[in-house]
Amino acid sequence: MTAAPLLALSQVTRVYTMGGSRVQALGPVSFTIDAGEFVAVTGPSGSGKSTLLNILGLLDLPSAGTYTIRGQSAMGLHERELAERRNREIGFIFQTFRLLPQHDVLGNVSLPFLYRDIEPDEIQRRCLEAIQRVGLDHRIGHRPAELSGGEMQRVAIARALAGGPAMLLADEPTGNLDQETGRGILELFDQLHAAGTTIILVTHDPAIAARAARQLDLRDGLLVEDRRLA
Amino acid sequence: MKTPRSRRARQLHDAFRSLLLHRLRSLLSTLGIAIAVAAFVAMLAVGEGAKREILAQIRIFGPNTVLLRPASEKSGLSLGEMQALRRQLTSIERMGAMRDTGLTVTGVAADGSVPVYTQTGDFLAMRGVAAAEGRLLADLDALQRRRVALVGSAVSIRLGLEARPGRTLLVGGETYEIVGIMAPSQRASVSPALAIHRNLDDVVLIPVESRATDPRADDTLSVGEVWVEIPPAMGPIAGAESLRSAVQRLRPNAPQDGIQIVIPIEVLRRETAIRRVLNLVLAALGGISLLVGGIGVMNIMLANVVERRGEIGLRRAVGAGRAEIIGQFLVESTLLTVLGGGIGIVVGVLAAAILGVATGWSVAVTPGALLIALAAAALAGIGSGIYPARQAAGVPPAEALRG
Ligand SMILES: Nc1ncnc2c1ncn2[C@@H]1O[C@H](COP(=O)(O)OP(=O)(O)OP(=O)(O)O)[C@@H](O)[C@H]1O
Ligand SMILES: [Mg+2]
Questions:
Q1: Which pLDDT tens digit goes with each residue over B363-380?
Q2: ipTM beyond 0.90?
Q3: Is B11 on the interface with A (CB under 8 A)?
Q4: Which residue among A102, A112, A116 places its CB closest to the CB of B21?
Q5: Whole-number Å distance between alpha carbons of A167 and A201
Q6: pLDDT digits (tens, 9 = 90+) for B91-131
Q7: For chain B, what are the domain ranges?
Q8: Are A159 and A108 in contact (CB under 8 A)?
Q9: Which one, of B295, B303, B308, lies nearest residue B384 by Cα?
Q10: Protein residue closest via CA to atom 17 of ligand 1
Q11: DSSP labels, B29-64
């Protein structure tokens, strides 16, 4: 493989300063992820998984080191540019779904297009396609309050997919679901991965991590293991 | 709902949805603004009504007219005194008078029901009377003491063929020839305090001079209420003063209060002053409500920012920049206050209408006033939204998504 990696971290650290004290939550870590990979980020609570995911998703910037997506550095980008990149490159999926109660399924899925100039027909087309992929065509007009947990997470995944991102970033996506429902979501991830979607999934459940082709294991903010299966 | 075309329109629609989620809260939070706008609209309606009334009165009297109003039937100026006054006050532009003779037209079908008034001087010109048929009463009629009559438009309709130009009418046993018919007067509501005579449409006018064949009797002919047009450079107040002293010179021994000097424009000013006080009260109420309402909206928006912290984080995650978060909260607060403004306009227009009926004042709602009220509401929305919006956008996205 000579193609540039999808994303690359080099000596990335994240230091939080609160009052007088400094907490080095992450790093220094260096690794690359290629397009199409399915990566699980594991580690105990407080090990820096969410901190890492926030940096990967351009919600936060490293205190030191460099982070590049498709060869373009995220360092020194203006807040406006970061937002635009998040809109186009990143699809977030959260443990608590984070659907907006004021919008129905279609409204929630089309949220990324609130911040992008695009034709209404195109919005419609992309949202319907994303909703179809997560298997919720029959619930388009429903409000989040009318959906089950599994359905809500599917809506959130459709929202993450609709914008056509370069990668999905999921932070404990099954943490609020029962095992059965969680399995359904993980199977959906498998399907998306099989179709070529890059997925980075944070979990502290080894069984879930085992589904990914690659595991990044964090301890105290440091990468202690980068394991590829098969 | 069809997806709006532009990004801005989609964001507006999104803000609208957010407000609809908590309808009652949204409605209550905007009550203060509604009261403010209602007060403003009512205030502007009363103010505009007063302005229009003054303008209508000015159209009747002119801004520089002063009235010499007899306190009793006997205390009025005589024709001789009026002429003397005119000779004394050379700067006066126009002077005229009209009086109810107490007589009626006789010898017609409507016998006894058509009042006859005398007029003299420039009265017709000062009232802006025009002839619909025939001619008006002229100076020569007065000079030659002709028995001629001018018929009001309503009288002409009532009497029909009996009141055509060229025909005659009986007044106090004398025969008067009809020379013309007046054009209908522009009806304008006249302030009750000014209580000018009956509308000219309903009377027959004759020259006061026709009531005496001998000029030596002029001193016994009462002319009634005298209208004096003061030169604009002098102004009605100074004009009234010089009239007062002129009248005193004319009748050194008569009691001073025999003739009231009335300045119509001043009477109107006094009358509208009470409305100005009410308007001040309404303005204060509006201002305080706007402030309190604005603080109320700000409060709700601040609560929103805290409550919707996770939503803000999510929006940042899917691509909202700081500017878009600020925009969202500003649009929400402005939508809230404009909604309140809309309610306020309805209430304000109703309040103005009720006030108008209750007090008899004329009130007038103008599109400009509504625009001003709505603009005030929108400004209050922006003013009360700016701080919460900045708060919302100030939270780092990763922070907003924690917890
Ligand atoms: N905004 C912050 N300010 C200060 N310290 C922070 C902040 N965010 C995270 N931390 C600290 O950084 C460390 C890593 O936190 P992080 O949330 O990344 O852990 P995590 O691996 O996601 O944990 P969990 O599995 O519980 O979600 C923790 O010690 C945490 O207390
Ligand atoms: Mg975490």
A1: 899 998 899 899 999 999
A2: yes
A3: yes
A4: A102
A5: 10
A6: 888 999 999 888 998 878 777 889 999 999 999 998 888 99
A7: 7-58+269-402, 65-229
A8: yes
A9: B295
A10: A50
A11: HTHHHHHHHHHHHHHHHHHHHHHHHHHHHHHHH-TT
